């Protein structure tokens, strides 16, 4: 299902992939987040995604015109995961709601790895 809004001059539909890209871009801007992660279910290998594939670490579902976002992230070594998660949730929620005009109901964070940053 796509996000939608009705306006005076017509209906606006927003594809889930667009919302996923926006959420991924917002997530990687947060302190402590090294990047988005892709997990190969077959062999359990976690891969850090390049900037142009950020949406692969994000899953967006829309139900009753409310967004649920799953973020698969890799964090920096030594950061507080709870502090990073709190910051991530508030930033992504705010950015996606401002961008789309649709309420974000829930954000689930999956920490898939830790990286030492030089």
Précis, in short:
Helix content is about 30%, strand content about 45%.
Give me the strand/helix succession.
EEHEEEEHE
Total number of domains: 1
Name the CATH homologous superfamily: Cation efflux protein, cytoplasmic domain
Low-pLDDT runs: none
Largest sheet, strands/sense/barrel: 5 strands, mixed
Helices, by number, come to 2
What's the gyration radius in Å?
15 Å
Average pLDDT number: 85
Tell me the CATH topology: Alpha-Beta Plaits
Structural class: alpha+beta
Molecular shape: elongated
Report on this structure.
- With 118 residues, the protein is of the alpha+beta class.
- The protein has one domain: 2-Layer Sandwich (Alpha-Beta Plaits).
- 28% of the residues lie in helices and 44% in strands.
- The chain contains 2 helices and 7 strands; from the N terminus they run ββαββββαβ.
- The strands form 2 sheets. Strands 3, 4, 5, 6 and 7 form a 5-stranded mixed β-sheet that branches. A two-stranded antiparallel ribbon has the order 1-2.
- Helix 1 packs across helix 2 (81-100).
- The radius of gyration is 15 Å and the shape is elongated.
Question: What is the topological layout?
Answer:
Layout: E1 3-7, E2 10-14, H1 16-28, E3 33-40, E4 45-48, E5 58-63, E6 66-76, H2 81-100, E7 103-115
Helix pairs in contact: 1-2
């Amino acid at each position: 299902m796509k996000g939608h809004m009705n306006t005076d001059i017509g209906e606006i539909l927003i594809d889930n992939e667009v919302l996923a890209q926006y959420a991924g871009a917002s997530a990687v801007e947060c302190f402590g987040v090294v990047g988005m992660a892709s997990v190969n279910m077959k062999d359990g290998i976690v891969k850090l995604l390049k900037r142009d594939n950020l949406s692969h670490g994000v899953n967006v579902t829309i139900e009753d015109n409310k967004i649920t976002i799953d973020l698969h992230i890799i964090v920096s070594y030594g950061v507080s995961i709870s502090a990073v998660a709190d910051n991530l949730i508030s930033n992504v929620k705010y950015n996606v709601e401002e961008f789309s005009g649709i309420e974000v109901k829930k954000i689930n964070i999956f920490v898939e790895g830790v990286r030492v940053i030089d």
